[in-house]
Structures
1.
Amino acid sequence: MELSILGLCLGLLLLVVPLFIMYRYRLKILPKALMGITKMIVYLCVTGFFLKYVFEWNNTFINLLWMILLVVLASFTTIIKAKLKLSRFFVPVCSGILVSAVVVGIFFLLFVTGLKNPFDARYFIPVVSLLIGNMMEVNYKALSVYYMGLKYHNQLYYYLLGNGATHSEAVAYFVRRALEKVSIQNIANMSVIVVGLSPLVMWSMLLSGASVLAAVEYQILIMIATFCVSMISVVITLWVARHYSFDEYGQIKDAVQHIDVNQSL
């Protein structure tokens, strides 16, 4: 379903309504809203420009490069939002996102959808992008919980070590908190979809002409895949990051930059 130039312009005119309301009631967020809208349009236009050629070329190597670019951007965003040290955590976070996205993405495309070529740009790019995009919000909260726990409740860690626990046993409590955060966030996302607020994949497929049954099936499977990929990503990230978080004697390193101690765990 292609939009005409007139349709696009009429759609953009809808912005007049919220902007006028902001102006009428002298909301101080009007400049921020204008900046945010501008950034969104520019970002999507640039992304669309590159994707146009990625889809036309449909080359496996280029598709993988696009995925790696998304992984790098997602890693930067996750680390910055979690307020961790970029120099220490880029490799762990990048590893977690990359491995989980590749494994779950290829499994989904190859076995769930039954594609003969899982690297076909038409399917590979959207699925991998959905998985990586959903990981960012969930993972940065999980990593915040884990490293805030180590920073502000390290007495528990040292208490367990002092009472004969191994390093893995002492850290297990903090790992559980991080994985609980991943689970709670994903369950919350699923609950929102249940009440019909944001089944993005389903609505997109219906707009593209897919049957209702197929759209519902893919929405369910994508949500399960994002749940799976988030859990795997956090586990891999924490496993790789153990060398950056603890020294050879099991002492906790200062990995967190500055996080509000009153922020909820």
Note: The radius of gyration is 22 Å.
2.
Amino acid sequence: MYKYLRNKVAILIFTLPALIVFSVIVFYPIIQTFYKSMFDWNGLGKGTFIFLDNYKRLLKDSIFHISIRNGLIFAAVLAVLQIGIGTFLAFAVSDIALKGRNFLRITYFIPVVLSITVVCQLWLSIYNEEFGLINKLMEQLGFLYRQNWLSSEKSAIYAVAVVNAWQYMGYHFALILAAVKSLPEQYFEAARIDGAGKIKAHISITIPLLYETYKFCLILAVTGGLNAFANMYIMTNGGPGDVTYTLTFLMYRSAFRVNEFGYGCAAAAVLVIECLLATIIINKSFRRKQITY
């Protein structure tokens, strides 16, 4: 095996198919997006080369600034809820003293496999101002509080982000639970001998050892928030007004509603750069020597 690993021709033969597929499916479309972003183009005829005018226009577009802000808000909500609650659920289910652990594993993962349309329709009912679960619960508890969650400029983007966080929380739960199960049991036995409780053991042992898993989950949550589209499209259609726009929604609106494909490509190019920068920053921030056990 070592002989084959040193053979550059063999390495090229095995990696070339993957590189070709990656180039055709991922790399080439990205290059085309950056290229088309420099055109005033309606998606059908021949475009007019305008160089960086679409990017200059983006910088002056108030919707673009709203989209950047909403993407960051979405990413923050996903990171906090998905990783935070996913960690709590994973730690709870990993406890062998907990009854019904297998049932809970399946239950927590069910939202991930549901259609996003079904999930959004469910939460539209929960958020409903007249008969929604949240407002009715407030009413039953005696609070004189009624909120139209998706029509408020202050709460709409957070309400939509919570839906996405709830649906894909099970994915992070599964990743963290698998990582917890892979940890050596002797570390926890030593902690119990030293008198550490479950909470202290998780804080001192489990969380530090899940460093790489948390980095991966954070990248997924942040890039997922920056790429958010379907939830806004189904639940708010970018509204009220333009307060729930993200870069993906701006890209969709520009390309398919007002036939400004060049402008939409410019928004897509900025999104690619934003996700790339977020990934680089997270990797740089979480860089340390790998722990072996």
Note: The chain has one domain: 35-285.
